[in-house]
Amino acid sequence: MSRLWSLWSPGRARAGGLVVLAVAAWLLPYRLNIYWISVADTAILFALLAVGMGLVMGIAGQVNLAQIAFFGVGAYATAILTTRDGFGFWTAGALAMLAAVIAGLVVGLPALRIQSHYLGIVTLGLAVAFIDWITNAPITGGDSGISGIPTPPLFGIDLASQYLYYYLELIVFAGGLAFGLFIVRTPLGRRMRAMRDDPLAASAVGVEIRMLRMAAFVLASVYGGAAGVLYAGLVHYIAPETFSIADMFLLLAMVIIGGRQSLAGCVIGAIGLTVVQQELINLAAYAQLGYGLVVVAVVVFAPAGLVGIPGRAAAWYRRWRGHTGRAAALEPFRPLPAAPPSPGSAGGALLEVAGLVMRFRGVTAIDDVSLTVREGEILGIVGPNGSGKTTLFNVISGLYRPTAGTVSLGGRVISGAGPHRICQLGVARTFQHLRLFGNLTVADNMLVPLDRTRTWWSWRYIGWPPGVWRHDRELKWRAASLLGCFGLAQFAGLLPGSLPYGIQRRLELARAMASSPRLLLLDEPAAGLNGEERSQLAAIVRSIRDSGVTVVLIEHNMGLVMSLCERVIVLDSGTVIAEGVPAQVARDPAVLEAYLGKSALPAPHATEASP
Amino acid sequence: MQSFFQTLVSGLSFGAVYALVALGFSLVYRTMGLVNFAHGAVLMIGAYVASTFYLSARLPFAVAVPAAMIVTGAVGLVIERVLRPLENKDFDLMLIGTIGAGTVLDAVAILIWSSSGRGVPSPVQTAPFDIGGVRIPAYNVLVIGVTAAAMAVLTLFLQRTRHGAAMQAVAMDHEAATAVGIHVGRSNAISFAIGAALAALAGALVGPMLYVTPTMGDSLGIQGFAAAILGGFGSIPGAIVGGLGIGVIGSFAAQSFQGYSDLVTFVVFTVLVMIRPTGIFGERTVNRA
After folding, report:
1. Does residue B283 register a pLDDT over 80?
2. What SS3 class is residue A374?
3. Chain centre distance of CA A241
4. What phi-psi label fits residue A411: left (phi over 0), alpha (psi between -120 and 50 degrees) or beta?
5. N- to C-terminal Cα separation, chain B
6. Cα(A61)–Cα(A58) distance, rounded to whole angstroms?
7. What pLDDT shows up at residue B284?
8. A359 has which bridge partners?
9. Separation between Cα atoms, residue B143 and residue A105, nearest integer Å
10. Cα(A43)–Cα(A48) distance, rounded to whole angstroms?
11. How far apart are CA A341 and CA B8, in angstroms?
């Protein structure tokens, strides 16, 4: 018995559950009458649509209220190409998928500029535009729709039978779900989840936000289009009423009730709501009332949907029992391997900022700043609050486009390039107020910047999936080793929000290092740290420098700046007022004036000038 | 030329209604940072309640409309109270919560008034004004006048009253507002209720111009929302300009493209928003790292 028990693991349990579900789904038609098999056929189509919705909304965080239009494009294109142009069903289906992908690109286009509720209304508006077109255009048959869509031929299998069609749908659905899950667990999906949690931080670790948003919409449209093609072949007749805004909201309700951030949740929601709707077909208004109320209740009480409830219940049970697991502990930092000194480049200019000006409307945050960061140094940037330090970092890392002036890295102008591009060129940063990916585990937070491939690399998901899998395994191995270096190995499976502040700070530093930068920008890395953590930080920063990375840090803690930095630049009101070795800068009259005001000038104790 | 002005007048009348809808959206967005997707459904409920008071209870139109505004104001209070736990936390979830609330209201309307619609006779029987061959129905003038009056009252409320000032403060920084003793929840509730009352006003006014059905809120809500974004979300002058803009675009689209007016309106809207996401009067926000 104990031998048997030792075979149990969450992964095996999940695999076992999947096998049981697959067998049950395969045997299901034997238990269903003709009415319920048609319900099952509809449920699978909704599940396919819901997986697409889950990918774009739950995983990539893009509000998409046009999924029903992708469904419609797939169905109408199939219908038009088969009945009017005489194409065979499968040729028409393939072209219809292409049409759906184009629709996905069109609907995704606004996401490049707008997000959240704006994106919601634009995608909903485009869905309304599509519905308007199908109800009016002669080619779509207007209100009366298109009939006479042929049954898809398949090696002599009679797909006119709803029972056999079920198996066709089931196979397509299983493939779609498996592909979706593969994406979610591998680099592409991880990037999407990072983008969902914090697009700004994601772009700063090298994620190509625009490409990824388009990819998310294309994925959604592929699932929508596939469901549309299958729907056309199933019912042989389509009309605008199937593609209404009410159906869009029903689909949304399925995804929300099931759990938008989990593809399994989306599927459960779709199948559950389809069945409930069929049960209440004569009480449609009550059904609508019911699912509307459930949606409201879910968003308020169980935002993760039905699939999130067991986890919450388990956590509640553990608290109630007073059961606590072994607490994960921070391990000491293991110095990074030191880089061999390269005589040629050491001391040369790595980053050059020339004549930089940054204005926000009337406010000039940076006013003609020029400075040089030398290869292999630790440079401190200090200055009173509001002196433009963080703005300078934001310009260097590409979050802002400077009003005038240039930033160049190793002789190459980088100002004006996007943050992801600048990260790819070797600049990493941390943020003054932590910006970790809140719904990604500590390990996933590291995996996003570790992956240095471009978004185009993702063609392998279709072309060569084992390559993706191998790449992912290698990334995970490297993440584990880097987490070990930073002493964070025991936290790998936890969410950052559950960790103490000092550990989150260290994680953000580790995440920045994961992109293998040449230049590391640290924005107030010691803020909120206690004395011991501060000295650990100093050791880590020195080790990072010794491994060949140049470090620039903004810091208010003068003790740290004095002990750590080899050179200090002082900013005040957006201009450089002093530059030099720490001890010399601390005695500079201009610096004293900036920090303490003119009247305090004769003050003799200046070395601990802390704002 | 004459038909051009005729189309323009019709566009402006609908535009006035869209402006009212946009105003409700903007008011709630200003104070809570929330887009109320149930706004269209509230409008539809307002149209039904007003028409029921007007037709069945035989109240004068001028009484039926404020009565409907009070009813939907109460509905707004309920929605706000239910979704309050999510305020200032997760905007996407709140957005979906309001869609759910809208679904509930749609279902309630079907259960009470059935899914078939009803026509509402115009409360104004005066002959249309004739200006240089352009016929302007008296009711449309009334709609534009009431809209202008509502705008003026709302602006005064926000600028001159204590509650209005509190709502502005919450809009700017809800934490700071709490710190100076403003009850943020109550302030949000008031703005939600006013937004809902404005929706009822729009619904009641548009009833005689259209047909009152349980789905009327979908289209009007989306158009009003588009108007709010076009003008600059959260801006009161923006709501007016955006509303009139969407009304005129829709009116000319309906004349030139017949049935395809929704298609043209939303494609034009999408392009405009992509060119200028902050709308005409919107403020540009800067990402803070």
Report:
1. no
2. strand
3. 35
4. left
5. 54
6. 5
7. 46
8. A364
9. 40
10. 9
11. 75
CB-based contact A420:A397 (threshold 8 Å): no
Topology of domain A349-600, per CATH?
A: Rossmann fold (3.40.50)
Q: Are A237 and A146 in contact (CB under 8 A)?
A: yes
Question: Are B99 and A303 inside 8 Å of each other by CB?
Answer: no
CB distance B91–A289 less than 8 Å? Answer: no
B138 to chain A, minimum CA–CA distance in Å?
31
Cβ pair B93:A303 closer than 8 A: yes
The answer to whether A432 contacts B111, with C-beta atoms less than 8 Å apart, is no
Contacts of A113 in chain B (CB under 8 A): 273-274, 277
How much is the pLDDT for B4? 82
Cα(A549)–Cα(A542) distance, integer angstroms: 10
Residue from B111, B269, B270, B276 to probe the interface with A (highest A Cβ count within 10 Å): B270
Taking only the tens place, the pLDDT of each residue in A94-127 is 999 999 999 999 999 888 887 777 888 889 889 9
Place of tokens 């299998």: A157
Pairwise CB contact (< 8 Å): B107 & A285: yes
Task: Say whether A405 sits in a helix, a strand or coil.
Answer: strand
Q: In what order do the strands lie in the sheet with A378-382?
A: A427-429, A519-523, A550-554, A378-382, A567-572, A575-580
- The answer on pLDDT for A149 being more than 90 is no
Substitution target from A57, A68, A128 for chain B, most B beta carbons within 10 A: A128
Calpha distance B72→A597 (Å, rounded): 58
* Closest chain A CA to residue B289: A431
Q: Taking Cα atoms as reference points, which of A124, A66, A117 lies closest to residue B233? A: A117
Instruction: Burial-class residue A320 by CB neighbours within 10 Å (0-12, 13-18, 19+).
Output: exposed
Contacts with A136 from chain B: Cβ below 8 Å:
258-260, 263
Q: What is the ipTM of this complex?
A: 0.84
Please indicate if any CB of chain A lies within 8 Å of the CB of B259: yes
Sequence spans of domains, chain A: 37-244, 349-600
Quick check: A86 and A302 in contact, CB under 8 A?
no
Distance from the Cα of A230 to chain B's closest Cα (Å) equals 26
> Is the model's pTM score more than 0.80?
yes
A114 touches chain B (CB under 8 A): yes
